[in-house]
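User: Show me a protein chain along with its predicted structure.
Assistant: Here is one chain, sequence first, then structure tokens.
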Amino acid sequence: MTSPSRRAFTAAALATLLVGCGGPDTDRTATADDSGGTPTPIPPPPPATKAGEAKALGRSAPVSLSIPAIGVDTPVMRLGLAPDGTMQVPPIAADDRAGWYQHSPTPGQTGPSVIVGHVTVGTYGDGVFRRLARLRRGDRITARLENGTAAVFAVSAVRKVAKADFPADDVYGDVDRPELRLITCGGAQTSDGYLDNVIVFATLTATSP
């Protein structure tokens, strides 16, 4: 039988992701170049070697996220589903933060843990994931969990895709190891928002107390 959590995860996979993405920014017209250049589209991440994998963790919600390569050090809030069935996004606020989709695995659990963030936050300026497109293979991402454990991931791929072609299976599909998905908006910005999504794929490489 499918669990309520799994049904909610699937519902989000079938919905349009990150409709808001920070809302229109009246101060400028953003393009992919504003966020560090257009990532080169590459296939979904290949399986890591056994030497590069770490043992899966138990379920514990993330409380913070650190990405040194792009200067991210953010608290992480919990997100669910909006009334229209799409994934919730963090509020548009000056203290912008990332949000973990609570119907996905927690970082370090087996499966794809999903964390989203804005690229811009309206009149407040840059969002927490403004430079997400600058990440490269091997860059480190650390999620600190409620139980005090740190789950350390290495970037395996960065993809920019049109929202109309969002790769739900690649992002939400079952995997047999702990993986992480970081998602924001990208591409050109219109009066209705951004046209693309930037998606970072990462694999668990280490854990620490």
